[in-house]
Amino acid sequence: MNSLNVVHPVEPEHRIREISANCWWVYQLDQVADEFKDTLSRVVFIGSSRQEVRNWVQRQREEQYSFVLSGS
User: Fold this and answer.
1) What is the pLDDT confidence band of residue 72, given thresholds at 50, 70 and 90?
2) Are 31 and 7 in contact (CB under 8 A)?
3) How far are the Cα atoms of 28, 36, 48, 50, 52 from residue 57, in angstroms, in the given order?
4) Strand, helix or coil at 42?
5) Which residues of 15-51 are buried (b: 16+ CB within 10 A; e: fewer)?
6) 15-50 pLDDT, tens per residue?
7) Are 9 and 64 spatial neighbours (Cβ–Cβ below 8 Å)?
């Protein structure tokens, strides 16, 4: 990579899975090249309800695009 390459942010893919009545997992698949996704996923959050894990995924999406400008 050189200073002329453009870096495009990539939103990770999240998948939700119900493990039991009170146990929901969020798996994350990351993009590793231009358009290739990792073949392995990893659990990034465990919640007790579907709504809890959906809220977590939504917060991750919001935080990905938020940033703070410093006054230097």
Assistant:
1) low
2) no
3) 10, 21, 14, 11, 9
4) strand
5) eeeeeeeeebbbbbeeeeeeeeeeeebeeebebeeee
6) 999 999 999 999 998 776 656 666 678 999 999 999
7) yes
How many CB atoms within 10 Å of residue 12? Answer: 17
For the chain, how big is the Rg over CA atoms in Å? 16
Q: What angle do CA 8, 9, 13 make, to 5 degrees?
A: 130
The tokens for 64 are 């990905």
24's tokens: 């929901």
